Amino acid sequence: MWTFGRKIALGFAVSFMLLTAIGIVAYRSIESLTRTSYLVTHTHIVLEHIAGVLSQLKDAETGQRGFVITGDETYLEPHQSAIASTPKLLKDLRELTSDNANQQKRIDAMESLVAVKLAELKRTIELRRQAGLDPTIKAIQGGDGKRAMEELRRVADLMDHEERELLKHRADEVEAAASSARSTIVLGTLFCLVFVSIAGFVLTRSLTTQIAAAVQHVQRSSTELESAANQQAAGARESSTSMTEITTTISELLATSRQIADSAQRVAGIAEQTAGAARSGDSTVRKANDSIAGIRQQVDLVVNHMLELGKKSQQIGAVLDIVSELAEQTNILAINATIEATGAGDAGKRFGVVADEIRKLADRVAGSTKEIRTLIDDVRSAVNTTVMATETGSKAVDAGSRQFDDVAAAFRQIAALVATTTEAAREIELSTKQQSTAIEQVNVAIAGTAQATKETEAGAGQTFQTASQLAGLSKDLLRMVQPQAAA
């Protein structure tokens, strides 16, 4: 069923749409009038330029005739002015008719004819200056200038005719747009007035009917309201007693939830301390593991140096073998030199002494080589022993590192479990706090409800009195709307 407000809204909506439609049509008509007026003005400007071109050429021809007759250069001023202004007029005319292909073609023809006419005028002026009056008159009588001017007038007449046809067509458009706007505004206004009058009558009648029905409904409802007010007062008294008991229970529940919240907070604090200790232990184990890793690196470095030392001692042994071989060869050469020196007699004694010294030096080198080899063997033995001991220590360091890794993993697991416990304790604490807050809000709400129940109990009597007043008021309103029905 349509309410009164909806009917009023519908009436205003239809009126608004009608006024909007009238406004749109009027706006478009005005836009069309404005656009057509601009085109009319544009057409007049084109006509003025066409006439201006002919006028300039006439002035040029007049100046040429005056100069030919008199020979006075001052008569050429109109001719010079026409030569200067005619190209600009033709350019403006081309721009003004850029949307008209026919006119553009005629302007092309007009430019050619203007060029021919101006060239003819220039020839006759030069001929008058050089040959005098009679030859110039004969040249003019040839009729070239006249034919060019007649053709130019024909082209201008065609352009003028087409523009005037456009002007007539646009004037018809203006008249049609104005007529349409007038008809739309007048008919739309009359229709709006009729519609508003009918809508006002219908709405008034509908309002009277609806108010009368509503008043009768209020009369029936006021009796029911009196009975409901009595029942409401009894129910309010019972609700007030129940709310008092609920308030006591909620207060005890609030105290218990606060004790739970305090306990959860203490558990959360202990869990956080445990988590801190676990994190500290994990950090200590990580540092010890890093130290063991450093020791392992140092042991590996010592093993590498020992192995390098063994390689160097082997290289020294190889060099000693070469030196020992050289000493033996030197000793043999010294013995051979001694034998040769003895065979040489007195001449070889000195050489024999030198050979003997060389042999002795070779013997000492051989002895030193044996001693160095013995030392190198001792070094090799010590290096091998050190490498074996170092490898044993490296294995022990690896075992300790693995044990520290296991301890670190255990600490991390403990830290994770403690973190989980801490998070659970925090969630319990938060949930308990939220529960306490909710209980407090419920307690406040119940207290407010209890107060409202008391107020409802007090207002039930006022509702009964108001219902009686409403019954009397509905009778008065019904008499105002339908006097005969109220009587």
Fold and architecture overview:
It is a single chain. With 487 residues, the protein is an all-alpha fold. The chain folds into two domains: 4-219; 229-481, Methyl-accepting chemotaxis protein (Helix Hairpins). It is 95% helix and 0% strand.
In short:
With 487 residues, this protein is mainly α. It folds into two domains: 4-219; 229-481, Helix Hairpins.
Give the helix proportion (percent range). over 70%
Supply Rg.
Answer: 65 Å
Put simply, the count of helices is 7
**Largest sheet geometry:** none
Give the CATH architecture of the largest domain.
Answer: Orthogonal Bundle
Overall shape: flat
Distance between the termini: 29 Å
Order of helices and strands: HHHHHHH
Strand content: under 5%
Defining traits:
Helix Hairpins; 2 domains; 95% helix; mainly alpha; 487 residues
Write the layout of secondary structure elements.
Layout: H1 4-70, H2 77-96, H3 101-131, H4 133-141, H5 144-344, H6 349-481, H7 483-486
Helix pairs in contact: 1-2, 1-3, 1-5, 2-3, 3-4, 3-5, 5-6
